[in-house]
Predict the structure.
Amino acid sequence: MPRRTVRLSLLPALIAFPALALAQSTAATPAAQAPVTQAQIAALQQAVQNAQASGDNAWMLVSAALVLLMTGPGLALFYGGLVRKKNILGTMMQSFAMIGLVTVIWAVCGYSLAFGHGNAFIGGFEHLFLRGVGLTPNTDYAATIPEQTYMIYQLMFAIITPALITGAFAERMKFSAMALYLSLWSIFVYCPMAHMVWGVGGLLNATGGHIPSLDFAGGTVVHVTSGVSALVTCIYLGKRIGYPQTNMPPHSMVLSFIGACLLWVGWFGFNAGSALAASPLATSAFVNTHFAAAAAAVGWTIFEWFHNGKPTALGAISGAVAGLVAITPASGFVQPFPALLIGIIAGFFCSFMVFKVKSMFRYDDSLDAFGVHGAGGTLGALLTGLFATRAINAIYGKGVPTGAIDGHWGQVLNQLGGVAVAWSISIVGTLVLLFVVDRIIGLRVSPEHESAGLDLSQHGEEGYDLNS
Amino acid sequence: MLKIEAVLQPSKLDAVKDALLEAGIEGMTILEARGHGRQKGHTEFYRGREYTVDLLPKVKIELVLHDELKEKAIQAIIGAARTGRIGDGKIFVSRVDEAIRIRNDERGETAL
């Protein structure tokens, strides 16, 4: 209703204004008309602002929903289809558990630690239990949307990041250990990283940070941290029993396909929503996201076609995800054709990481969380430094060069700095947390439970009971 | 009484069923199975890794029938299932000691 009222109130103003102007030229007392016109202009201005804000909020709420869709059921299906049948529910439960747990953590202290005022590395406790987070904008972050919109949008990022890590230790971690480990991870690794890149006063914040790094939607915050943590976790935990001699093909490429497509669509909220407004920048990010995903799917498929002789569905969807990861930091900084290029490069690079590097070093990154997210995120962050341009986003100020193609080659070094911080905090934080949780409750399921499958051993359920 | 077990390609199931019905053989049990003989499997690719799949989908038909129908049944199956290529399948014949109709306790050949 308020929206219609705003629209309707514009109409009489638009009609009355010229009429008043005409009236002014023939009126006997111009001074008496002037205050009415001023009030009218002010009302018009407010109406326009309201319209913009309402457009922004609508888009941001939809974006938040899209990002949640990426975790549930996007990631749940994508990962679920890739594991063996006996682990489908266990895998989906890991993503779902993150939705529940991280939401609570975020409400209690996560948002405050990530986006509150603190120092260069971590926020503070001013918003503990979301104190002070109301329906008026927080101009530090987004001037036209209620702070709760911003908070809930950021929450969806906080949810999916630890969920991504579950791909590395699929089929072999205890549910209790996973819940504890990833809850602690979201507080001690995600919140500091989010604060450093996006929080006020953050070390890596593009505006005012010591090492201004460009990360539009979370290439380092989400993908590098989760991907590198995934690598550390899968090495610490060890390989699945029977890997790599035993065949462990995906039990349902159909589910993975559906999940991947949901991820693609959801990613529009992830990237274009990071414009924090229904603006031309959001359009830019939307277009770049789609272009990179498509180009990367093609790139991976071509690589695979030559390497193995046949283009697989798994390769195509993995390529698309790799492209989406790589464009994430760049989405609101680059032009469309560089986005295509980033996609193609990511398709080739990530497929190389998965096909060659993984077997070379023989780690069991079960669902390629590192190969796609860790490697793709790192690549994307560096390419962002290369292709970021003030023509799309003059983040350093009007006319000030943004990335290397503007002439600011130092940005690539800044990106390297951001990536280095992400790698460091992920490696150290993850190792400490794994060690601690392992001592408290033990991380890995017993061999018997691993053979029986997580569905039965951890949840007492069967994913498919087609004979019932 | 004889039992005939035929392991077949799944794509031949309908043809074999029809051929058996035409030959006057009406009772049968059909099972989904996996296996292989001398037939090589196929390879599948997942994320760059090659998997050899040698548990191939098969269909198994079990018939218990009068001794006199043995050749008729075998010819019906072979006629419908043979392609001449590796993977056509196999037929096994064995003796059956007893047959019982659950509904009314009939025993012997009349229970078939």
